[in-house]
């Protein structure tokens, strides 16, 4: 009886939609007309024929690798900086974590304003400092659009991953570090031979969340760049949106959604196995 509400919630909001997406992916399903019958495997076969599919896959993977690496490295540095209680640490923890409270769509709109040559404060400040002579096209070229989006995501989520890693750091007993110091280990040796191995569960959790979130990136690119310029920042999830709500083809969108779901499932299973193996070691 206690589990029944949660069971109904999962059934209605996860299982039923998942089955419906599976049915859509195997059918010809215009958005405004409903199912026209099974057309398997046409929707799946047509995914690779889309000229934007492989560029979108390549961009999504490139974005994922860069964001995951930058986020984890920066979050680790921030966590090491604020793990111990001392003067000013409380302020730093709050400042680092504050962007997490802002929604991603709101943060994207905020940065769109920052990058705007008409209303943004960044270009006037850079020109006043003498760094640039004219406004920078922050989202006007493929590389700058990618860079600007990464800055937004890192600013938004670095504090969240800092919190996870900080909790992991604080769970490591001080006696381990004291024993290492007695044995003559330096701080660098202690970090690589004690801190990183014992942080393995926290790092694995950060990897799972950051990789999954990056592969499903949508809000920041939809609001900030709208996939441009020249579709250079179009992600796989943006392709799903385009198929469903611009081409009105729910069948193709559902097929692509199923493919993305299976890829994420494989990636997460591999990460969980790696985490479990690390725990057993």
UniProtKB/TrEMBL annotation:
Subcellular location: Cell membrane
Entry-linked Gene3D superfamilies: MetI-like (1.10.3720.10)
Pfam families membership: BPD_transp_1
SUPFAM superfamilies: MetI-like
Keyword Nucleus carried by entry: no
Membrane topology: Multi-pass membrane protein
TM region positions: 63-82, 94-115, 144-167, 203-224, 244-267
Alphabetical UniProt keywords: Cell membrane, Membrane, Transmembrane, Transmembrane helix, Transport
UniProt record, GO biological process: transmembrane transport
Superkingdom, taxonomy of origin: Bacteria
GO cellular component, one term: plasma membrane
Boundaries of every ABC transmembrane type-1 domain copy: 57-271
Primary localization class, coarse: membrane
Family stated for the protein in its record: Belongs to the binding-protein-dependent transport system permease family.
Descriptive protein name: Sugar ABC transporter permease
